[in-house]
Amino acid sequence: MSSDVSKYILQPGILDIPCMQKDGLYPDNERIRRGPVAVLECPQEIPCNPCETACKKGCIEIGDDITSIPRLDDQCTGCGLCLPQCPGLSIFILDGSLPGGKAAVTIPYEFLPLPEADEIVDGLDRYGKSVCDARILSIKRQYLHDLCYSVKLEIPFTQIHDVRHFRKKTTQGRKNEV
Ligand code: SF4
Ligand code: SF4
Predict the structure, then answer these.
(1) φ and ψ at 118, to 5 degrees?
(2) Residue 114 per-residue DSSP state
(3) Atom of ligand 1 at shortest distance to CA of 78?
(4) Pure H helices in 36-169
């Protein structure tokens, strides 16, 4: 059952992804398997639009009514330029094209210390619960004036709609294969 703030939110922090896919607000699994693509996890009518101007290809549309829910068109290449420009940390890049049942999710990250490349961390779902091991593929900062990093994680494809954050492991000996 949807919440009173958006029909796409089941409960705080939990999106109804099938419902968003049905209304064209979220790429389907077939598109995600073809390669990197942005997902805009922004289903509330809020006055905000930096994502629209961040995409130089014009793939994100909000329009004249600044409270409209952002829509992504099918030209998105998953370049990630829009990701650190979202003040709500609501944009992620999903890539389901990795071999061996793996996928990549790139998340906005504003914490220190930063992880290291190849580090194995806990992949966290929207509840903050650890759901899998994740491997750090890259850490990038795209804008010198912006302290939001884009951290790319390798995860099992089966967790691609769940993992949206990570936590550094606190104990040794938990470096399982992802
Ligand atoms: S990932 Fe790149 S192409 Fe896709 S919406 Fe963001 S800026 Fe545009
Ligand atoms: S910038 Fe982020 S929070 Fe603002 S409308 Fe775009 S996706 Fe939503």
Answers:
(1) 80, -5
(2) P
(3) 1
(4) 50-54
At 162-173, the pLDDT tens digits run 999 999 997 554
CA-CA distance, 75 to 72, in Å (whole number)?
8
* Tokens found for residue 131: 């759901």
Closest C-alpha to 151, from 102, 103, 115: 115
- Name the residue with the closest Cα to ligand 2, atom 6: 51
Which atom, in ligand 1's list, is nearest to the CA of 54? Answer: 7
**DSSP helix/strand/coil, 52:** helix
* Residue given tokens 């550094």 in the structure block: 168
pTM: 0.92
Break the chain into its structural domains and give their ranges. 9-168
Residue 34, token pair as written in the block: 């073809």
Question: What does the pLDDT average to over 32-45?
Answer: 96
Per-residue confidence band for 6, with pLDDT thresholds at 50, 70 and 90: confident
Place of tokens 């990549």: 104
Give every CB contact of residue 50 below 8 A, 6+ residues apart in sequence. Answer: 85, 86, 87
* Binding site membership of 115 for ligand 1 (Cβ less than 6 Å): no
Contact 163, 131 (CB under 8 A): yes
